[in-house]
Amino acid sequence: MADMKPRKRIALVAHDCQKDAIIAWAKKEVTSLSQHELWATGTTGSRVAEATGLKINLLKSGPMGGDQQLGAMIAEGRLDVLIFFTDPLASLPHDVDVKALMRISTLHQTAIACNRATADFVMRSALLDSAYTTDAPAQPQNPAYQSNDAEIHVRNSSMSKKLLMLAGDFVEDYELMVPFQALQMVGFKVHVVCPDKKSGDMVKTAIHDFEGDQTYTEKPGHNFALNHDFDAVRSEDYAGLIIPGGRAPEYLRLDERVMAIVDHFLTSGKPVAAVCHGAQILAATKTGALHGRKISAYPACAPEVRLAGATYVDLPVTDAVTDGQIVTAPAWPAHPAWLAQFIEVLGAKISGI
């Protein structure tokens, strides 16, 4: 359950063809809106603030990750009302982000208005200026979305269910998003961090694909909203570490703070998973923890793996290898294999499936 205070936290968003409409509506509701804490995606918020004089906290524009920032705020209980003037007839590049925002808003029982009429009803409600307690997030009722009450059980009950993921600009999209979502789905809390960035900041992703060329192809991915401050990381609080590949490991391994985190997990015996170019970060450790280990990675990283004293394991792109607490895989097609092995190394068991 969540408690809403009389002074609500309201987000304002509008698709391009609806921006004039939300500005006109905000002008009409300026007195009521001024009594509450206002947030907005960049372009919408700037225009509404300019037209009304309202004090608005600005996020990034929707296509640049603002919708994801709002979704993170709702999931963390930091927004109460979403006023989103949508265009139901247009197909937009960031439709997937909008759909995710609506899903998370519904799940957490955020009050939603999608046009002037529903926005008017929200603003006229007696509950707007009163304290209100929501129910706990709704549980799925459609059997297609249930896993027979699947649960994750940790053999060592004292072990944290928090995992840390290291990301940076142009991290590989699938290698970031898939484990981030999958590990949360089975019950872990995953903090994704990047040096010199905070929760809500963005990293850009890259999509590496295998299309018959002598090496992978690289395409622009998405903007991913980090969900934890890098400077707030306490390595001892986490049960395991995930290192996705892409371009990011090339420069993350140069950061002593990153390597201190990695060294903590390697030397303390905690589970570590690295995919594709993530092995570049493992190979940069000065602890000697890779010496004699069996490590897989994207084939171009094999020389670095060997220079670190490890045995490079040449696997099919869909396979993974575990050596002690370290789980590695050559690329994102191995997600099913390495995720299963990583969960086992974490001492967890999924039951009820």
What does this protein structure show overall?
Helix content is 31%, strand content 23%. It is α/β, with parallel strands linked by helices and 353 residues long. The chain folds into two domains: 2-133, Rossmann fold (3-Layer(aba) Sandwich), CATH 3.40.50.1380; 151-351, Rossmann fold. The strands form six sheets. A six-stranded mixed β-sheet has the order 11-9-14-15-19-18, with helices on both faces. The longest helix is centred in the first third of the chain and has 13 residues, at 95-107. It is elongated. The model is unreliable at 142-150 (pLDDT under 50).
Considering the chains and any ligands shown, give keywords for the structure.
2 domains; Rossmann fold; alpha/beta; single chain; 20 strands; 353 residues
The top level CATH class name of the largest domain: Alpha Beta
Q: Provide the CATH architecture of the largest domain.
A: 3-Layer(aba) Sandwich
User: How many separate helices?
Assistant: 12
Globally, the shape reads elongated
The CATH topology of the largest domain turns out to be Rossmann fold
Low-confidence stretches: 142-150
Kindly report the spatial arrangement of strands forming the biggest sheet.
Answer: 11-9-14-15-19-18
By DSSP, the count of extended strands is: 20
Question: In brief, what are we looking at here?
Answer:
The chain is an alpha/beta fold and 353 residues long. It has helices spanning 19-28, 30-33, 42-52, 66-75, 95-107, 116-124, 173-185, 248-252, 256-268, 279-283, 302-307, 335-345; strands spanning 2-4, 9-14, 37-40, 57-58, 81-85, 111-113, 132-134, 151-154, 162-166, 171-172, 189-193, 202-209, 217-225, 240-243, 272-275, 294-295, 311-312, 321-323, 326-329, 348-351.
